[in-house]
Amino acid sequence: MPAQSLNLYVIIALSVLLALVLSVYPLPMDMRWWRPEFVLVVAIYWMFFMPLTVSFLFLCALGLFQDLLEGVPFGQHSLGLVIVGYICILSYQRVRNFSLWRQSAWVFVLVGIAQLTDNWVQGMAGRPLSGIQFLYPALTSALIWPLCSLWLDRLTHRHHH
Q: Is the CATH code 1.10.1760 the one for domain 3-159?
């Protein structure tokens, strides 16, 4: 494996690790609904810009690990990540050419879909549904997309050739 490829996998692993830490970082109770879906945003980035580097098996395992970390029903995040991953594979060639703000709007839609699946799993597990609040993370995820995308672009600039 070439060193450049190895460096890319290290960057992917570190970005996912940082996203996992941010997903459980303590927040005040009234701010928890507004936490962006960091893991999903990072996964969307890699699916859009390097779709052959992230597999569905990786997304599934990442989702299961996130479930364990957050203490939610097993498979909740995996379902959302795999569905969003599939949509990303279908749309990445168009979305890569969107402006950053149009990409943000698409990220809102993708995170909203994942939040719908999360809400559905929560309901199936007998937990009370949250009403429209489940879309708040989609909004904050769309708002952080430009920063996340530009930061990861900067880290991987030599890999975009």
A: yes
